[in-house]
Amino acid sequence: MVLSAATGNCSHHNVSDPFHAAMFGLMAVAAVVLTATQALLAWLIARHSLAPHTVFGHSVVIGLLLTFVLATASGFLLGGQQPPAGVGLPVVGWQLGQADARPAHFMGVHAHQWIPMAGWLLQRYRVSNAGGMLAAFTISYGIVWTLLALWALP
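^ thats the sequence. predicted structure below, dont judge the formating
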């Protein structure tokens, strides 16, 4: 990506020649492998740690699993369509006036941070029914991701 940017070329969705098309495909494979590590980490933590028996532990496992599922699904959605051009939101460039898969992908990639943060806060402040609140947060997170993914469909 740095080399592409330095030479004034697009780093993503660049299929202008066989080399760049191959690199775009290789990037997709690497991204799926990278997110698959999240599922492996979730399995290892659930199997070999005492932490999953806490609200925070559950949130870590859930967040890692959702990162694998949501980031992979939205990554395929994002990879299959060029993001809209033009000025979007500051910093991220997301387009809110037209279909854009980047917000759903962002939520998918960062589930392993947001859900454990919610679990940690629930456990830290000894919220009554913390398990139920974590479930409600996780379901809400999934609903928002689903709405963003559906919105991104062409």
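The mean pLDDT is 89.
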